[in-house]
TrEMBL record:
Membrane topology: Multi-pass membrane protein
UniProt source species: Candidatus Raymondbacteria bacterium RIFOXYD12_FULL_49_13
Keyword vocabulary terms for this entry: Membrane, Transmembrane, Transmembrane helix
Xref: InterPro entries: Phopholipid_MeTrfase
Compartments, record wording: Endomembrane system
PANTHER family, per database record: PROTEIN-S ISOPRENYLCYSTEINE O-METHYLTRANSFERASE, PROTEIN-S-ISOPRENYLCYSTEINE O-METHYLTRANSFERASE
GO molecular-function terms, A-Z: transferase activity
Record-annotated membrane-spanning stretches: 12-29, 35-60, 81-99, 105-121, 174-192
Gene3D superfamilies, per database record: 1.20.120.1630
tRNA-binding recorded as keyword: no
Protein name per the record: Protein-S-isoprenylcysteine methyltransferase
Alphabetized Pfam families for the sequence: PEMT (PF04191)
Listed GO CC annotations: endomembrane system
Length: 194
């Protein structure tokens, strides 16, 4: 059951936030303060994603669980799932920017996010441990899953930051991010929900 849920959420991870996003937009009550805080969180989340994708590259844009290489450099040296950390912060910023039923919406969002990603991460960890064996077990033992640690994983890595690849890989996310920011600003300007 856990594996099937992980596979389902992994395949659908780009689409599962859409119902919540539509709800947040429909009942939006943006303020200048909610937009500023939300925009800050969205930018922070996207920068974390760009940093992670700059090291992992196109390995992150797949419908298949697993990876061709074990990436342990850059943000992966501090947290095992930097892209999911970035997703969390970016999406939290969306909730805050639209100011829909705050603060209750933050709790709803957190519940759905961690419910979904619990199963995804368990599935990915099993696949990575199967593929990379002891190397992944050592990495997993030293690097936290979601909350970045103060120490870094100091094992030589062939992966270096590639900003061009990061931006190219993040193109769709950046377009979606821009559309959400524009929608929030337009709704605020028009006085939507006030």
């Amino acid at each position: 059951m856990e594996t099937r849920l992980g596979q389902f959420f992994f395949r659908m991870r780009s689409y599962t936030p859409i119902p919540l996003l539509l709800f947040v937009i429909y009942f939006a009550q943006p303020t200048d303060q909610s937009l500023a805080i939300g925009f800050f969180l969205m930018v922070a989340g996207e920068l974390i994603r760009i940093w992670g994708v700059g090291y992992a590259g196109y390995l992150t844009r797949t419908r298949n669980v697993g990876a061709d290489a074990l990436v342990t450099a850059g943000p992966f040296a501090r947290v095992r799932n930097p892209l999911y950390v970035g997703n969390f912060i970016l999406s939290l910023g969306v909730c805050v920017a639209f100011n829909t039923y705050m603060p209750a919406m933050v709790f709803v969002y957190c519940f759905f996010f961690f419910f979904q990603y619990y199963f995804i991460v368990k599935l990915e960890e099993t696949a990575l441990e199967t593929k990379f064996g002891e190397a992944y077990v050592r990495y997993k033992a030293r690097v936290p899953r979601f909350v970045p640690g103060f120490s870094t994983y100091d094992v030589a890595s062939a992966h270096t930051f590639n900003p061009g690849m990061a931006l190219k890989s993040e193109k769709k996310t950046l377009i979606s991010f821009s559309a959400v920011v524009a929608a929030a600003c337009v709704m605020f300007y028009l006085g939507y929900g006030q």
